[in-house]
Amino acid sequence: MSLSDRGSVLITGIAELTTVDEELGTIPDAAVVIEGERIAWAGPASRAPAADRAVDVGGRAVLPGWVDSHTHLVFDGDRAPEFAARMAGQAYEAGGIAVTADATRAADDARLDTLVAARVREALAGGTTSLETKTGYGLTVRDEARSARIAAAHVEDVTFLGAHLVPDGLDPDDYVELVCGSMLSAVAPHVRWADVFCERGAFTVEQSRRVLTACRDAGLGLRVHGNQLGPGGGVALAVELRAASVDHVNHLTDDDVEALAGSATVATVLPACDLSTRAPLAPARQLLDAGATVAIASNANPGTSWTTSMNFCVATAVLQMGLSVAEAVEAATLGGARALRRDIGTADRPAIGRLAVDTRADLHVLDAPSAVHLAYRPGMPLTWAVWRRGEQLVR
Ligand code: NIG
To answer: Which residues are noted in the entry as 4-imidazolone-5-propanoate-binding (predicted)?
Structure first.
C-alpha cells in the first residue's frame, strides 16, 4: 500500500503530547492526525478534525521519536572481556577498536547486514525513529566501502569514519593519505557525513583537519569525535570547520564551552558511554546554561556503549547530568535533528525531531501518562508504540 492509500489516521487518548515545537509546546488531552508520512494536525483533542480511521492510545504520553545522531552499528564481535576489565579498574584506550575491526573484516556481507538490521529494529522498538550510523570498523578501502554500503541500506544518515584508528603497522600519515584518497572515493556514494576520532591514541588535530577538509571538499558534512579522553583541540577544530556536531565533549575548557555556545556546532553528549567508560560526565548542564545546542545520543558500539536505548540515555541525562526532563527530551529529539541538520524540512524530506504540521509523523508512545516517567521510572520498558513515517511499526 502506498503512503497516500493509507488515508488519514486520528490518534486520540493522548494524555500529554510533548511536541518539542516552540509554538505548540506540551498539550494535555491531545490528538494528532497523520496523513501519509507527515503530521497533518496536532492540538487539543476537543478540536480534532475527522479522519479516515482512529486509534486510541488509552491515556498515554506521546513524544517525537528519538533522533539518535551518533551510533556505530556496523560491526561484528563482542568486547565484554574488555568491559569487565574496565569495570575492574583498567582505563579505556582507543586501541580496542582494532579488536572489533578484526571481527568485522572477518564477517561476510550477509552477516553484517543481518546484524545491522537487528540493531536498527532494536532501536526502533525503544522509540528511535531516526538513526545516524558510522563506518570505522573496516579501516581498509574494501571494508570501509562495504560498511558504508550496508549501513546505507538501513539508515538515512551514514557517516564515513575511516579516521577511527590507524591500523597496526601503518604509518599514520600514509593512512591519512589513504583515507583522504581512495577510501574517501570508495565510500562517498553511500555517505552524507564524515567524522574523525581527534584524540590521543587516534588522530592529531592536524591529521584530523586534513581528513575533514578533504571530506568537506568531496561534499560531505562534518562531525568530530572530540575531547573524550582528555582536553584537546577537537572542539575548537569542529567549530572552526563549522562541523554540524562535536561528540563526547567530556573534557572542556571554558573557551571550548564559549566557542560552542557561539557556534552552530551541536555539542552531542553520550551519557551511556560516559557511564560505561567511567569517564567524567560531559558537562551538558554547563553547555545548556552557556547557550550551546545540546544533543543526546546513544553512541551504540561494542567498545564504549553497547546499548541502543535512548530511554536510558535520557534518564541518565536527567538523573546524573542535571537536565530537566523537558531539556533531555528536547536534546534527544530536536537536538539530534539539529546535529544531523534535519530539523528543517523540504518539499520532499519532512523535518524530524518535533511534532507539528508537516513534520515527519514519527511518534513515540510511552506506557505512562507523562514524559516525566522516563526518568521517574528509570530502566522500565516504557516504549508502548512507535509510528515511523506515518506507519505504526511497534505494537
Ligand atoms: O565513540 N571514540 C571512538 N569511537 C567509539 C568507540 C569505539 C570503540 O572503542 O570501539 C566511541 O566511543
So the answer is: 79, 137, 164, 228, 304
